[in-house]
From TrEMBL, chains A, B:
Pfam families: ThiS (PF02597). It comes from Pedobacter petrophilus. It comes from the Bacteria. The lineage of its organism: Bacteria, Pseudomonadati, Bacteroidota, Sphingobacteriia, Sphingobacteriales. This is Molybdopterin synthase sulfur carrier subunit. Transmembrane segments: none annotated.
Automatic annotation (TrEMBL), chains C, D:
This is Molybdopterin synthase catalytic subunit. The keyword Coiled coil does not apply. Heterotetramer of 2 MoaD subunits and 2 MoaE subunits. Also stable as homodimer. The enzyme changes between these two forms during catalysis. CDD domains: MoaE. It catalyses: 2 [molybdopterin-synthase sulfur-carrier protein]-C-terminal-Gly-aminoethanethioate + cyclic pyranopterin phosphate + H2O = molybdopterin + 2 [molybdopterin-synthase sulfur-carrier protein]-C-terminal Gly-Gly + 2 H(+). InterPro entries: MoaE_sf (IPR036563), Mopterin_biosynth_MoaE (IPR003448). It holds the Pfam family MoaE. Its EC number is 2.8.1.12. It comes from Pedobacter petrophilus. Pathway: Cofactor biosynthesis; molybdopterin biosynthesis. PANTHER family: MOLYBDOPTERIN SYNTHASE RELATED. It is an enzyme of class 2 (transferase). One of its GO terms (molecular function) is molybdopterin synthase activity. Keywords: Molybdenum cofactor biosynthesis.
Amino acid sequence: MKLEIISFGKISEFITGQEIEVSEIDNTDQLQQYLETSFPQLLGMKYKLAVNQNIIQANQQLTENDQVAIMPPFSGG
Amino acid sequence: MKLEIISFGKISEFITGQEIEVSEIDNTDQLQQYLETSFPQLLGMKYKLAVNQNIIQANQQLTENDQVAIMPPFSGG
Amino acid sequence: MSEKKIKNIFMDGAISPAFIADSIAQHSTKTAIGGHSIFMGQVRRDEINGKFVAAIDYTTYQEVALAKMHEIREAIFEKYPLSCMHVHHSLGKIKAGEICLFVFTSSAHRKPAIDACNELVERIKAELPIWGKEIFEDESHQWKENI
Amino acid sequence: MSEKKIKNIFMDGAISPAFIADSIAQHSTKTAIGGHSIFMGQVRRDEINGKFVAAIDYTTYQEVALAKMHEIREAIFEKYPLSCMHVHHSLGKIKAGEICLFVFTSSAHRKPAIDACNELVERIKAELPIWGKEIFEDESHQWKENI
């Protein structure tokens, strides 16, 4: 399955925007494990995911060409 | 005893600034009775007194040449 | 009362947006500030018994108001870690749509500025001897009462 | 999501006092308004490990931030009887002492404007995907975290 990964803030310093091709990943929990293995800097960080511009609160199915954003804690204002 | 009376807001429309000469008045409770007799429009109105620029919360002795202000409810802001 | 100089919060006529902008701009050199809170009172064109308020004419018992404001100012500075506090109130005839009260507080973090601003507005309305005469479009009037 | 147009709250660079004055002045024709509440966030020259913050560089996930802000806006209008609500947030490099957030609410009586303004500030800080990179005077940086 092909996914587009985008990232923000502190996380954008070690994960740049990229397309990834993954197998055996069906949902965001699995993707999260994959990301934490590929980018160990994520371990111990708080972050949220958004799938196709919707911030997700729980595990969610992924489908071909989904765009997944990795977002560290917000610090606007 | 001579007192100076000043007034504000709605009350200034029927009590103008004036010096009054009163006898048998020693304190603000007595003055208040005198004022409500002289200016019956005060009856039923809420108002506060200030003696020599200090807003009073309870009955207070008056002395010669005191300045007494009669103030309706505040409406600033 | 402390030795600090009593500030005059009163100004003749409406408080202009330019005056407010100026006041804000003066804080750009105070780089310990992280949050500003502002309250502005604006004269409403209220309809009362079919007549519209055209303006409010404000008067005060100035000596007493300024002494009381000084006391409030010191209490608020004591209670909240503020960098700045500014209060301005109009006197005279302020037309509907114009600004008659400007309260401006600043602090390193937002909470003290916000809480102090709110408390100031409540105390100013309740404790300062200021009176507003609502003047209708036909020149008749009634005295405003704070609710 | 309703049919109302999604407003863009973002602007490049600092929010100027003149911009704020303009926004205030535009409300003088809205004569049902009696109270305005404003919150402004200003970049602090914080000292962190002996280095001073010179600026904060703000970025956002704009589509998500604007959709979330739209949702917040509708919730606040639903909850409080407001006449107006304006929110502006800076993007890019904002120097210490400059204003990066401007929240402005107005209502007939003061309470709804004040409460709505406070709630907006809290929700903006907690819910909008915006990130601030604190840039020190020596060009090094660290990522800001809201407390």
